[in-house]
Amino acid sequence: MSTTGNLEKADFERERKTLLVSLHAKALDCAAAKPVLGDRSAAAAAQRLDYDYAQLRVRTDDAIAMVIRAKQLDDWTAQFLAAHPAATVLHLGCGLDRRCDRVERPGTPTWFDVDFPDVVALAQRLYPAAEGQRYVGADVTDGDWLDAIPASGEVIVVAEGLTMLLTEAEMRALVERIGRKFGHGEYIFDVYNTIAIRSMNRHQTIQATGAELCWGVDDINDVTAWAPGLRLEQEWFIVGSPYVGRMPFTSILISRLMHLSPKLRRFSRLVRISF
């Protein structure tokens, strides 16, 4: 365990810096009186980084929205693995998240955490190895990394806070490559609509990271039209979560009003797409 004088550096810029936002949100949740995730690994990892999280300007409601997102993706992953215990898990753009520690994994699933080599190197220093879990240091948009992944049985592809950092062409190519490789499985990820992309690029936290959000989806049927066999199983709205009640009063009110509007409730949502 690192001490105060032996902290890990987190010298990330732009898109990579968004992983610190997610980590900080999980650490804040862990310290809350009634946490949503209660991820102690994330809290410990956040303390081991030599980083001033205040510069990210993360608001309470935004932090809660991020852990709501993570909780639902955890639940869907656990449900899939309960039905397919020997499945392969591709956790894309994993950052410093340890979903493999939070999700019950019956059977012997092979879990691949994929992110840039420098991100993976830091994650390996922060977290102990987990049974069945492996890191892959690569840009997810580079197709070469997928060649080394064994294709057997079902696959679940999990992406949290990634899709909006890619272009539509990059995301489509990724979906098509994985579909050709595995044949059957499920994609679960969060997505913004085009209103949200414009709004979030002006958000104080996104501006603090220097990242630029690119891809927004108004109609998820545009995604399922990419390839034969893609089918929307579920679309889940952040503002409809019961955990929204943990937010400050004004944010609760805004969320409830947004949920009444078909367009605004799609500002930020999660989708399950089978193939």
From TrEMBL:
Annotated GO biological process: methylation
Keywords for the protein's UniProt record, in alphabetical order: Methyltransferase, Transferase
Record-level Gene Ontology MF annotations: methyltransferase activity
InterPro entries on file: Ppm1/Ppm2/Tcmp, SAM-dependent_MTases_sf, TcmP-like
Protein name according to UniProt: Class I SAM-dependent methyltransferase
Source organism of this protein record: Dactylosporangium salmoneum
Domain of life: Bacteria
UniProt cross-references to Pfam families, sorted A to Z: LCM
